[in-house]
Amino acid sequence: MPVPEADQVIPVLNDYIKIFKKANARIFATRDWHPPNHISFKAQGGPWPPHCIRDTEGAKFHPSLKIPSDVAIVSKAMEPHKEAYSGFDGTELANTLQKEGATRLFVGGLATEYCVKNTVLDALGLSFKTILLFDAIRGINKEYDDAKKAIDQMISCGAGQASLSDFPYPIEVPSTGDPDNELYEKPLAKIETRKKARMRPRGPYKRIRTERG
Ligand code: ZN
Fold first, then answer.
1. Which residues have C-beta within 8 Å of that of residue 137, sequence separation ≥ 6?
2. How large is the greatest C-alpha to C-alpha distance in the chain, in angstroms?
3. Are 77 and 38 in contact (CB under 8 A)?
4. Cα 94 to averaged position of ligand 1 atoms, centre (Å)
5. Could you tell me whether strands 104-110 and 160-162 are parallel, antiparallel, or unpaired per DSSP bridges?
6. Spatial CB neighbours of 132, under 8 Å, sequence gap ≥ 6
7. What is the band of 170 on the pLDDT scale with cuts at 50, 70, 90?
8. Range name among 75-84, 116-125, 137-146, 160-169 with the lowest pLDDT average
């Protein structure tokens, strides 16, 4: 089941994984884990070609996605007769998050107008502050503007938006205390800019001191 440009979210998600890992935030990876006769498949009258059939190659996370070993994997849509786009649908995700005292979720992945949208809307419904990782999603766009409509809907329902360049400010990911070595790690474009900006004025001051000396 192809999602156009889906591979482009992988390096971005890897950067987010790094950021949240450094911040000691919990990371969850949701996945379709369908039985071979799932209701969403065309042979069963559904809209989709067979995809993400449990225990097959097609159900695996992309090999380039760097999923840490302590990530919680949330499998969904495992019942033959029930579709479940949302990561909360028929899973323990809500219970786990509430038990752990989570208040804020950052969501990225595929596809924007199906699993991402339904997960985000459920999260908002459960009163989590929910932030859409805008550069880490891609849509299928059966109709050309499906993904855009989904984004509009998520935002109008209260979702926030963030991109890599927003980190670490102003998202307030819990800091690990050492700005130079932790959240500020490469490859965050904005941080590179800040470092360069800080270095620029040093040159002239140094020269002035040398001339005086
Ligand atoms: Zn599916």
1. 9, 108, 109, 110, 111, 112, 116, 147
2. 83
3. yes
4. 20
5. unpaired
6. 107, 108, 116, 120, 151, 154, 155, 159, 160, 161, 162
7. very low
8. 160-169
Query: How many whole angstroms from 35 Cα to the centroid of ligand 1?
Result: 10
CA of 24 from ligand 1 middle (Å) equals: 30
Here the tokens at position 43 are 């042979």
pTM score over 0.85? no
Ligand 1 centroid vs 38 CA: distance in angstroms?
Answer: 8
| The pLDDT of residue 171 | 47
**CATH level 2 (architecture), domain 6-29+86-196:** 3-Layer(aba) Sandwich (3.40)
How far, in Å, is the centroid of ligand 1 from the Cα of 3? 12
99 alpha carbon to ligand 1 midpoint, in Å?
A: 27
- Residue from 61, 115, 58 nearest 85 by CA: 115
**For residue 167, what pLDDT band results from cuts at 50, 70 and 90?**
confident
Tens of pLDDT, residue by residue over 86-102, are: 999 999 999 999 999 99
Tokens standing for 197? 């900006």
Interval between CA 85 and ligand 1 midpoint (Å): 7
The two tokens of residue 143 are 């109709």
Quote the ligand 1 centre to 146 CA distance (angstroms).
17
If you measure from the C-alpha of residue 148 to the centroid of ligand 1, how many angstroms do you get, rounded to a whole number? Answer: 21
